[in-house]
Design goal:
alpha/beta, Rossmann fold, binds acetoacetyl-coenzyme A, 10 helices
C-alpha cells in the first residue's frame, strides 16, 4: 500500500468469497464498503464483527448502483478499487431452464460489471489510477452442465474485462479477472452432495478452495505494484481446469 488512502467497494462483500475479500482489503489498510443485496441479518452481523460499513443495493440495477456508489463515496471518499464479486446461480439443464432463471443470472452476473464500472470509470481515468477486479468462474472458462446461464454470464465477465482493460490501460487503471474453481462457500454447498463428491474427486489439489485464497489473489491484483498486470485472467481452481 502507498501513503494514499485507498477506497474499495466489494459487491456481494458480506458473505462467501466477497466477505473474505472485504476483510483482507481492510487488513492491508483499505477503507472498504461491502455491498450486499438482500440478507440484512448476515450483512449486519458481518459489519459488526469486522467493523466494515455495509451498503444495500441490487447490482443488477444500474440506477441503484449509481445511487449506491454515491452513498459510498459520500461516506468514505473517492473509490479507486472495485471488486465485482456479486454473482448468483440458477442451475438447471437447458431443457428445464426457465426464461426467468436465464434472465436472473444474466441480469446480475455480467450486467453488474457495466452497472458498477460505468459510473466510476471516468473518475478513475481522471485520477490516473484505478483497480478493477472481476470475479468470473472456472465455469465461464470450461462450461458446466446445468449452467448454460451461469457459464455464458461468467464468460461474458471475461470478455468485459479484456475490452475495458484496453480502454483504460494508458490511464493507470488495471482491469483483471479471477476465475475461482469450486470454493468452500454456501453457493458450492448447494450443489447436490453426490455431484459435489464427483467434482472434488476431479480437483488435483484434492479439496475445495477457500475464500481466503481468493482474497489473496485479489490483494495481489489490487496492489499498486501490479500496474503492468492488466487484461489478465487468473485461474485459481486447484488445477481442475488448466487454461492456456
Ligand atoms: N459434474 C458431473 N456430473 C454432473 C454434474 C457435474 N457438475 N452436474 C450434474 N451431473 C450429472 C449427475 O450426476 C447426474 O448423473 P446421473 O444421471 O449419472 O446420476 C446427471 O448429471 C443429471 O443430474 P441430476 O440427476 O442432478 O439432474 P437434475 O436435473 O435434478 O439437476 C443439475 C441437474 C441442476 C445440473 C444438478 O445436477 C446440479 O446442480 N449440478 C451441479 C452443477 C454445478 O456444478 N454447479 C456449480 C455450482 S457452484 C458455482 O457455480 C460456483 C462456481 O463458480 C464454481
Amino acid at each position: 500500500m502507498s501513503e494514499k488512502q485507498r477506497i474499495a467497494i466489494v459487491t456481494g462483500g458480506t458473505r462467501g468469497i466477497g466477505a473474505a475479500i472485504s476483510v483482507a482489503l481492510k487488513r492491508v489498510g483499505y477503507k472498504v464498503a461491502a455491498n450486499y443485496a438482500g440478507n440484512d441479518e448476515a450483512a449486519n452481523a458481518f459489519s459488526k464483527k469486522h467493523d466494515i460499513p455495509v451498503f444495500k443495493w441490487d447490482v443488477g440495477d444500474y440506477d441503484a448502483c449509481v445511487q449506491g456508489i454515491a452513498a459510498v463515496q459520500q461516506q468514505l471518499g473517492p473509490v479507486d478499487t472495485i471488486v465485482n464479486n456479486a454473482g448468483i446461480t440458477r442451475d438447471a439443464m437447458l431443457h428445464k431452464l426457465t426464461p426467468q432463471a436465464w434472465r436472473d443470472v444474466i441480469r446480475v452476473d455480467p450486467e453488474s460489471m457495466f452497472n458498477m464500472c460505468q459510473p466510476l470509470i471516468l473518475q478513475m481515468r481522471e485520477a490516473g489510477f484505478g483497480r478493477i477486479i472481476n470475479i468470473s468462474s472456472i465455469n465461464g472458462q470450461k462450461g458446466q452442465m446445468g449452467q448454460t446461464n451461469y457459464s455464458a454470464a461468467k464468460a461474458g465477465v471475461i470478455g468485459f474485462t479484456k475490452a475495458l482493460a484496453q480502454e483504460v490501460a494508458k490511464k493507470g487503471v488495471t482491469v483483471n479477472v479471477i476465475c475461482p474453481g469450486y470454493i468452500d462457500t454456501d453457493m458450492v454447498a448447494a450443489v447436490p452432495e453426490k455431484v459435489l463428491e464427483g467434482i472434488i474427486a476431479g480437483i488435483p489439489v484434492g479439496r475445495l478452495g477457500s475464500a481466503g485464497e481468493m482474497a489473496h489473489a485479489v490483494l495481489f491484483l489490487a496492489d499498486e505494484n501490479a500496474g503492468f498486470i492488466t487484461g489478465s485472467t487468473l485461474t485459481a481452481n486447484g488445477a481442475q481446469f488448466i487454461a492456456g
